[in-house]
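User: Let's play a game. I give you a shape written as tokens, and you guess the letters that built it. Ready? Here's round one.
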């Protein structure tokens, strides 16, 4: 583009000089009209030529500018789409961990229900309780690794700890140690704490959507 502008400028400057020199040759003396008329003709001719070249250069410049701007907009739009996709993938992963955590907590509560209905033995209760708590612990480790959920783990852990204490002291290891907190109805208290944990995780999931 710069080279083209230089060439046009040179031509624009050289044409008047060439015309003025050419007017001295005898060939022009045989043409109709005087020197002033021919100068006017060549002035109009070169003017239209330069005007056409200028219009062409402007059109090329505008076209290239628009193409560059469009390319920049397309690049920016593509980057935004990539960022949005990454965020969607990230939130899908976050929701998956929270849903998995809620599922394990439901399984944990069902274990106690099965035991109270005499559907499983005390040994099976201890085994299932241990397996479920290990699964919850692993999910919490994954949740801690997620930046969006790091500040939410402490509340989940506190509620889970209260549930674990009730199960340990009133179901899996009855009478094996000092009871940290007395409950008139341990099962009802346990159900309330499970409900509180469910609601907490559900509410945290809703906050991520906003």
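Assistant: Ready! My guess for every position:
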């Amino acid at each position: 583009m710069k080279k083209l502008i230089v060439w046009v400028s040179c031509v624009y400057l050289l044409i008047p000089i060439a015309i003025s020199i050419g007017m001295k040759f005898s060939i022009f003396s045989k043409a109709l009209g005087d020197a002033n008329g021919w100068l006017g003709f060549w002035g109009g001719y070169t003017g239209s030529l330069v005007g056409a070249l200028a219009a062409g250069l402007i059109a090329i410049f505008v076209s290239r500018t628009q193409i560059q701007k469009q390319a920049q907009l397309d690049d920016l739009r593509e980057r935004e789409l990539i960022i949005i996709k990454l965020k969607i993938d990230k939130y899908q992963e976050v929701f998956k961990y929270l849903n998995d955590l809620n599922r394990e907590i439901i399984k944990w509560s069902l274990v106690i229900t099965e035991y109270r209905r005499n559907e499983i033995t005390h040994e099976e209760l201890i085994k299932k309780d241990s397996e479920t708590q290990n699964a919850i612990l692993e999910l919490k480790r994954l949740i801690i690794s997620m930046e969006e959920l790091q500040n939410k783990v402490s509340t989940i852990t506190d509620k889970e700890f209260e549930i674990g204490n009730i199960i340990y002291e009133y179901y899996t290891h009855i009478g094996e140690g000092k009871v940290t907190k007395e409950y008139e109805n341990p099962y009802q208290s346990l159900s309330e704490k499970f409900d509180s944990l469910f609601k907490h995780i559900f509410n945290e999931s809703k906050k991520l959507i906003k």
